[in-house]
Amino acid sequence: MQAAKAAKSKDKGLLAATQAALGAEHAAVYGYGVVGGRVTAPLRAEANAAYAAHRARRDTLRRAVRDLGASPQAAAAAYALPFPVTGADSAVRLAAQLEDKVADVYSDLVRAGQGSVRADAADALREAAVRAARWRGSGVAFPGLAERA
Question: Distance between CA 25 and CA 54 in Å, rounded?
């Protein structure tokens, strides 16, 4: 009986982490729509590539949630941005923040998952950390493991 409770609790943790990652991907897709409209032409290709990568991850996570027997959370109609994005500089800052948030939630999915789920989440965390470093011009020691309030 204890093993069944532990397995059910673990499945709930995996589902919650997967839904959180999906929510972050929804927000990143929205955010990159803003970023792409504000960055300068040389950075637009990088913004478009990030947008496409987040759409692909979002679609994969939707399938993962369904595979876990739940309904994927829907994207919001709009997302509150952490600060006004008025030009290229603030758009670049937003892109870095979006990637930091994505890395944060994927670190939770790495902890909750096993096998291929964990490996895919670790890949997504790495990709987000690399994109954040590109946008910011520097990386962080342990992406996705920043202390949270």
Answer: 6
